[in-house]
Specification:
Helix content of chain B: 55-70%
Number of helices of chain B: 4
Number of strands of chain B: 3
Order of helices and strands of chain B: HEHHEEH
CATH class of chain B: Mainly Alpha
CATH superfamily of chain B: Winged helix-like DNA-binding domain superfamily/Winged helix DNA-binding domain
Mean pLDDT of chain A: 82
Number of domains of chain B: 1
CATH architecture of chain B: Orthogonal Bundle
Largest sheet of chain A: 8 strands, mixed
Oligomer: heterodimer
Structural class of chain A: alpha+beta
Low-confidence stretches of chain B: 1-7
Number of helices of chain A: 31
Strand content of chain B: 5-15%
Strand content of chain A: 15-25%
Chain lengths: 908, 109
């Protein structure tokens, strides 16, 4: 058994290396003394004997080094030494170290923050088992029928696919809904998910408590009054009370038994739209009283989002190919049905039969699409910042390596190998980037919390758990960024440092400073100027976009408006009951003190969507209609409440005959459909897919053009109908114009609504200004971050610029001294340095302007009210950048002008 | 001054092992002994001796002990371990074969 002894020896030399070294000294001394003794015994003078012995022995230090190497710990000792040296030399120049670490931390921090946001919001998979096997099944092509969205199919088609496919180990479907949950005398509206029986088992999601919904709950419509709560909702709403299992809650007025709590972290398959309660899809009628796709077995009514779990080994493509014949058969069958045959032509049928099955990743969701574009944009911006940070560090380290040429030369003179020096400098930069990355991670973690709250709707942000531990990919990203950074900026000066000609460096400091170093540094500064320009222009464009959106606004006065949403139909009220509810509410709200006008609209303002429908009219039939008008059903006081002035005719009145079909349109509508005619009294009708409609709706008034869906749009053609003439009543958006600060009215309003009907919850109560603020969330995030990045980039470039100039002045000290001795004045010297500044900035701009031109076109769709090549933004960025660059250059310039010619020549 | 090559190093190892096979010796005595036995032909450089000794010690072929020398001073005495003894036999046999073979070649011409 040799190895225990070996290990023991190793440990001895490692752990007791001082003692081992001491013993080696002792051994060597003994040897020398023996030799001396021998010489003395042979009759030599002791002094000579000592010298002779030492000559014979050779270099004891070298011997000790070689011997120590046999202990096998040298590499370790040297690394420890390198780290120690690294720390020492970093501590010796605190300004450099601080700037370097700060640069790195901000660069890496910004990148990690953006990456984890992107990762968790866009790239993240569902928190279920094997999320990669999960696909959404959709039918692409022409739909011919009613649809709840592009990812939905009909219930009968879901059943057919589920029962006859060969590629999925299981399929389930779901439908999102909002429901009223009632507890005693208060009620609240929450998001629910109606799920088919195999939902939980196929997802592989278990219950934290009780059980999940099982196939048994999913056989007979209306027969499964059970609910599963999401973990976070159970904690927040029921205080995590375990006794809730088996108890009854009221959803839309129906008693439902809570059978379980879903596992923590799971809140439905739609990321960013957390479901709080899961209900068997068999309860569709109860959960969505206004429509029933379950019993209405129309084959072209698409409403369920369908998921499949691919069998192991089957690819998405194989599955699509295998499902296509199945779909083909279904389409053939559907196209024969009277419902389809009645309204479709032979051409329509051909188009219809070309529909295809398409599978999408199961984690694909609207949130990702909606958020990913600005996030990728911001990631690109942070990438530029990281690049800038790196070049700044390279610059700093290059300057440092130059300043340390002498030190390095001394170290080589006393025996340090090149590799050793390169390694030591590398260790130093790894230390820097290690500390920088750690600080960066901390910054990223904090920044992500802030960003999420700016970015997501308040309730979604609260539910969105950003894990405090960055996941493996984020960590890989940071470590990768760190390594690339340190190699990028570490290796370059390290190699230069090792190449230093030692005699030159030792002999004469000022002449040894190599010319390629300063060229490289100028290049780096030029790059920084170019990148700064890019980021500054970006910041300018986004900030001005935000300002344009804010100052232009929707067109109507937004202060003094309070808005909220209600849906009495969720309580099972019939159309008649709902109608009477709204009529009473209309009168009731007018009497609320502080309210000057109260109006309703079925479709919300500035929420990004609208009810659109093609129209027919007497005189414009067949005329090309570019866009479908935006429609809504409103109360007579709606226009006054929102603040949209009437320009002609009148608004609706309660005195209108109940059967009268009247419409109020906007000017754009009038211009588009009744050009050159008086719009008042014109007739039109809505196109319906069932039959031809007689244009029987009469225009009674015209309002001015205001924005409807979002702030970026030009007002579309709009038409409004009196809500009481509508046939089905559901949710309404209420707009209250207040006399004072609308926020002061919130409590009174809630109380009034509670008295009016405690079972109808007030949803999304905000002021109009807050609503606009929310709709500009993305723009605000992009604008504020790009402004921060622009400022960061500019300060980094200024540091770089200052460094290079200070160095140039130091290098040209003698030259400047001679010039001054020959009669150059202070302004001449200042100009000498400032010329350098201007050349550097000009070189940077020369690259930066075309770069900015090319890249800013890519963000055209994100801008509003200005072009990507907006001359004002570009000019002010150029002027601003040049100005601050000159300020940064002035310091070294003034220093140069104060050079004493005599002193500088004497130094030489 | 380059590193001693393998042959030289291997020979030095063999000489050291052989020298301390009878009794423990300290470094100076090992060098002296090799010089004497070889009739002053083999001069062991100290620069090679001590690294070799420490390397053999790390390999656990030899072990060291601090003992009093003839002059009464403490010195580091090296002696063979069991592994070292086995190694010595192997190396010695190898050397015998090798030198015999070289002899044959050299004398045949």
């Amino acid at each position: 058994m040799v190895w225990p002894r070996k290990v023991w020896m190793r440990l001895q030399t490692l752990l007791r290396s001082d003692q081992a070294a001491h013993q080696l000294d002792e051994e060597v001394r003994f040897h020398l003394d023996e030799q001396i003794a021998e010489y003395v015994a042979a009759g030599m003078d002791p002094q000579d004997a000592r010298h002779a012995a030492m000559r014979l022995f050779g270099n004891p230090t070298s011997l000790k080094e070689t011997t120590r190497e046999t202990w096998g710990w040298v590499w370790w000792e040297q690394i420890v030494q390198d780290v120690r040296y690294g720390f020492r030399s970093l501590r010796k120049s605190p300004l450099f170290t601080t700037i370097a670490i700060l640069t790195l931390a901000l660069g890496i921090g910004a990148n990690t923050a953006m990456f984890s946001l992107l990762d968790q919001v866009v790239l993240r998979l569902l928190p279920v088992s094997h999320p990669d096997q999960l696909v959404i099944v959709r039918e692409t092509g022409n739909h011919f029928g009613n649809s709840y969205g592009p990812n939905t199919i009909s219930w009968p088609m879901f059943e057919d696919l589920r029962d006859h496919n060969q590629v999925f180990s299981g399929m389930f479907c779901r439908f999102p809904a909002t429901v009223n949950i009632g507890v005693t005398d208060r009620s609240e509206q929450i998001s629910a998910e109606l799920v088919s029986g195999q939902y939980f088992s196929i997802l592989g999601v278990g219950a934290a408590l009780g059980r999940t919904i099982a196939p048994d709950d999913d056989s007979v419509p209306d027969s499964a009054p059970v609910a599963v709560l999401s973990y976070s909702f159970w904690r927040s709403y029921f205080g995590g009370d375990p006794k809730i299992i088996g108890r009854t809650i009221t959803l839309n007025g129906n008693a439902m038994t809570v059978i379980g709590i879903a596992q923590p972290g799971f809140d439905g398959v739609e990321l960013g739209e957390p479901s709080k309660v899961f209900v068997p899809i068999m309860m569709k009628t109860e959960m969505t009283p206004h429509s029933d796709g379950l019993k209405d077995r129309r084959r072209r009514l698409s409403w369920v989002t369908t998921y499949g779990r691919l069998k192991p080994g089957i690819t998405q493509q194989q599955a699509e190919l295998s499902l296509q014949p199945l779909l083909q058969g279904i389409l053939e069958m559907e196209s024969q049905q009277p419902e389809f045959a009645r309204s479709a032509t032979a051409d329509d049928r051909q188009v219809f039969l070309r529909n295809r099955i398409k599978l999408m990743p199961g984690s694909d969701n609207g949130l990702g699409d909606y958020m990913s574009k600005p996030l990728w944009l911001l990631l690109a911006l942070t990438g530029a910042v990281l690049l800038l940070a790196c070049s700044n560090l390279a610059n700093l380290l290059l300057a440092r390596a130059t300043a340390r040429e002498r030190e390095l030369a001394v170290r080589r003179a006393i025996g340090a190998g090149r590799a050793r020096i390169v390694r030591q400098l590398l260790v130093e930069s790894l230390l820097l980037s290690g500390v920088g990355a750690t600080a960066g991670l901390a910054i990223a973690f904090l920044a992500d919390r802030v960003l999420l709250h700016i970015y997501l709707p308040a309730d979604a942000a609260a539910e969105f758990v950003i894990s405090p531990i960055p996941d493996a990919r984020v960590l890989a990203f940071v470590v990768g960024a760190m390594l690339v950074t340190s190699l990028f900026f570490g290796l370059m000066p390290a190699i230069r440092g090792a190449r230093t000609e030692m005699t030159m460096a030792l002999k004469d400091r000022s002449r040894s400073l190599s010319a390629d170093g300063i060229l490289l540094r100028r290049l780096l500064v030029g790059t920084q100027v170019a990148l700064s320009l890019l980021l500054l222009v970006g910041a300018g464009l986004f900030v001005r976009t935000l300002r344009n959106l804010e100052t232009l606004g929707p067109g109507f006065p937004t202060d003094h408006v309070l808005t909220f949403r209600i849906d009495p139909s969720l309580n099972g009220y019939s159309d008649e009951q709902t109608k009477s509810f709204y009529q009473r509410l209309e009168v009731n709200l007018q009497t609320l003190p502080g309210v000057s006008s109260a109006g309703f609209s079925a479709m919300p303002l500035l929420k990004g969507y609208a009810w659109q429908n093609a129209i027919v009219g007497k005189d414009f039939e067949g005329a090309p209609i570019e866009q479908q008008p935006v429609l809504s059903e409103v109360s007579p006081t709606y226009f006054a409440s929102v603040g949209i002035p009437l320009v002609a005719g009148r608004t609706f009145s309660t005195q209108d005959p109940p059967a009268a079909k009247y419409a109020v349109i906007n000017e754009k509508f009038a211009k588009e459909y009744f050009p050159g005619r008086d719009p008042i009294g014109q007739l039109f009708g809505l196109v319906d897919d069932m039959q031809t409609i007689i244009p029987d709706t009469q225009v009674i008034g015209v309002i001015s053009d205001k924005k409807y869906r979002e702030l970026r749009e030009t007002p579309p053609p709009q038409a409004y109908f009196h809500y009481v003439t509508g046939t089905h009543f559901r949710f309404m958006n209420i707009y209250l114009r207040t006399q004072g600060d609308p926020r002061l009215l919130e409590d009174a309003l809630r109380e009034r609504m509670r008295q009016f009907d405690p079972h109808v919850p007030v949803v999304d109560l905000v002021t109009m200004d807050e609503l606009i603020g929310q709709s500009l969330r993305t723009e605000r995030l992009v604008a504020s971050l790009s402004a921060v990045f622009g400022a960061l980039a500019t300060s980094l470039s200024l540091i770089g610029l200052y460094g290079v100039l200070a160095y140039v002045v130091m290098r040209r000290k003698t030259e400047i001294g001679i010039r001054m001795a020959l009669g150059a004045l202070k302004p001449d010297v200042i100009w000498l340095v400032m010329r350098e500044v201007l050349i550097l900035v000009a070189a940077g701009l020369l690259v930066g302007i075309p770069l900015t031109f090319a890249l800013s076109s890519l963000v055209r769709s994100q801008l509003f009210g200005l072009e990507p090549h907006d001359p004002l933004t570009l000019t002010s960025a150029i002027v601003g950048l040049t100005f601050v660059a000159c300020l940064a250059g002035l310091l070294p310039a003034l220093k140069a002008s104060r050079i004493d010619p005599l002193q500088s020549l004497r130094d030489e | 001054m380059g590193k001693p090559n393998d042959l030289v190093q291997g020979m030095l190892d063999l000489l050291i092992l052989k020298t301390i096979s009878l009794e423990p010796k300290h470094g100076w005595a090992i060098a002296k002994r090799i010089q004497q036995i070889s009739n002053q032909v083999l001069q062991v450089q100290q620069g090679s001796l001590y690294p070799a000794l420490h390397r053999l010690e790390q390999k656990a072929w030899i072990k060291a002990k601090w003992m009093e020398s003839d002059t009464g001073r403490k010195a580091k005495y090296y002696s063979l371990t069991a592994t070292g003894r086995a190694q010595l036999e192997k190396e010695a046999a190898n050397w015998g074969r090798l030198s015999g073979a070289i002899n044959l070649v050299v004398q045949s011409v």
